[in-house]
Amino acid sequence: MKSNPIPMVAIIDDDEAVRDSLSLLLETEGWTALNYPSAEDFLEEGDASRFACLIVDVRMDGMSGLELFTELKQGNYLPPVIFLTGHGDVPMAVNALKDGAMDFMQKPCDQRELLARVNECIEKDIARRGATAHQQKVSELVAELTPRERDVLKEIMLGKLNKQIADRLDISTKTVEVHRARIFIKMKVHSAMELAAMLKEIPMDELLGS
């Protein structure tokens, strides 16, 4: 059985003491921590998609944590982000939350609270990646359908009966039954209910390109 990879957390902070103490703390939980002394170093050496969580200092020399966050949002995948802030940085951190950050914590952080937040980030990252993998798998299955089978699939997902689908597409009910059977085989399901469960989190227009 394939084991789950050890979650990796990036610590991006220009204070060496903070990086070292956070690394030791995270590693006590069995997570892997990688340290970066600046946002620029992370952009040069790090790949955000490798990590389950980013811990980012808001205020750093050079590029700030918020500027890094904005830059990383342009990429393919941004894991959950926890910002570390000084007292005067709270308004900036609140804006970051509105912009999609997971959380912000004031320095010095309570260790138990930080670990709880990181764990939440890791769980969210796992769920998000699982949803992405599921959507990719479903998209690949749909890509195997013929154009007419996709038409029938869309009508099935709208809850239409075979006779209604036949009338809508101007084909015979028997032809609809044949398409339905082939769709179930290609999508690896046994019923319309199972098909609906597979597709429930995926917008139909996005899935079928219509």
TrEMBL record:
<protein>
    <submittedName>
        <fullName>Response regulator transcription factor</fullName>
    </submittedName>
</protein>
<dbReference type="Pfam" id="PF00072">
    <property type="entry name" value="Response_reg"/>
</dbReference>
<dbReference type="GO" id="GO:0003677">
    <property type="term" value="F:DNA binding"/>
</dbReference>
<dbReference type="GO" id="GO:0006355">
    <property type="term" value="P:regulation of DNA-templated transcription"/>
</dbReference>
<dbReference type="InterPro" id="IPR001789">
    <property type="entry name" value="Sig_transdc_resp-reg_receiver"/>
</dbReference>
<keyword id="KW-0597">Phosphoprotein</keyword>
<keyword id="KW-0805">Transcription regulation</keyword>
<dbReference type="InterPro" id="IPR036388">
    <property type="entry name" value="WH-like_DNA-bd_sf"/>
</dbReference>
<dbReference type="Pfam" id="PF00196">
    <property type="entry name" value="GerE"/>
</dbReference>
<dbReference type="GO" id="GO:0000160">
    <property type="term" value="P:phosphorelay signal transduction system"/>
</dbReference>
<dbReference type="InterPro" id="IPR016032">
    <property type="entry name" value="Sig_transdc_resp-reg_C-effctor"/>
</dbReference>
<keyword id="KW-0238">DNA-binding</keyword>
<feature type="domain" description="HTH luxR-type">
    <location>
        <begin position="138"/>
        <end position="203"/>
    </location>
</feature>
<feature type="modified residue" description="4-aspartylphosphate">
    <location>
        <position position="57"/>
    </location>
</feature>
<dbReference type="InterPro" id="IPR000792">
    <property type="entry name" value="Tscrpt_reg_LuxR_C"/>
</dbReference>
<feature type="domain" description="Response regulatory">
    <location>
        <begin position="8"/>
        <end position="122"/>
    </location>
</feature>
<keyword id="KW-0804">Transcription</keyword>
<dbReference type="InterPro" id="IPR011006">
    <property type="entry name" value="CheY-like_superfamily"/>
</dbReference>
<keyword id="KW-0902">Two-component regulatory system</keyword>
